[in-house]
Amino acid sequence: MQPSLQHYHAILHSRAAVFSPFDTQYPELSARGQSIVASTGTRRQLLQTASVLAIGAVAWKLATFRALAAGQVAMPSAASFPVRHTDAEWHRMLSPAQFDVLREEGTEAPFSSPLNHFYSKGTYDCLGCNNPAYASETKFDSGTGWPSFWKPLPNAVIERQDGSMGMQRTEVHCARCASHLGHVFDDGPAPTGLRYCMNGVALSFKPAPGVKPPQGA
Fold first, then answer.
1. What is the pLDDT of residues 97-143, one digit of tens each?
2. Residue 76 DSSP one-character state
3. Does residue 165 have a pLDDT over 90?
């Protein structure tokens, strides 16, 4: 168990009281006390150090608890993904807009994707590696301007905390090539209550037999 900040304060104050330089009954202890608390700057530094340690420990525990409670895991290293490319290779494979979203974690403009209002049967795959990410049966109109789904396909994506733009969000990445697809929010429809808000530029639609893909996709 980690000592609390109050514990550090109690120790420091008790030592200052016991080893008082004005204690005439115990001169030996008084002399020792002077050497321990003679420097106000040193005592203040101890208090500040204890405060930083305690606050840091609490912040770390809270962040860990939130991640575990949400079922989120830390982003694995790039070397652990089945599909890997160098930045130069990604640049050759993707358009500037695709690279910005998939590899730089950018966000496309709302209502800019032809996939936004497309509901034909098929799958929505990661554009970076053709990994099937979402089934058309889970797509819905969120009114946000981005293709939205209430559930990904099994083992298709991974999630991690995103603290950019002054807010806490949950990023969604392809589990096969680590490409950034979008974010997930907890304001979606039943049965999951989740809204996987995806960038259309990060997805490619693979139609079911007999289904035509949307123009421009």
1. 999 999 999 999 999 999 999 999 999 999 999 999 999 999 999 99
2. P
3. no
List C-alpha distances in Å: 20 to 13, 23, 44, 144.
Answer: 11, 5, 17, 67
Of the listed ranges 12-16, 144-148, 162-166, 198-202, the one predicted with least confidence: 12-16
Give Cα separations from 58 to 38, 49, 164, 177, 188 (angstroms).
31, 14, 21, 34, 31
Q: Both 145 and 182 in a single domain?
A: yes
CA max distance for the chain: 98
Element (H, E) at 184: strand 180-185
Structural domain harbouring 26 = 5-69
- CA triplet 14, 23, 26: central angle to 5 degrees? 95
Q: Which residues are catalytic?
A: 197
Same domain, residue pair 9 and 51: yes
Residue 34 forms part of a structural domain: yes
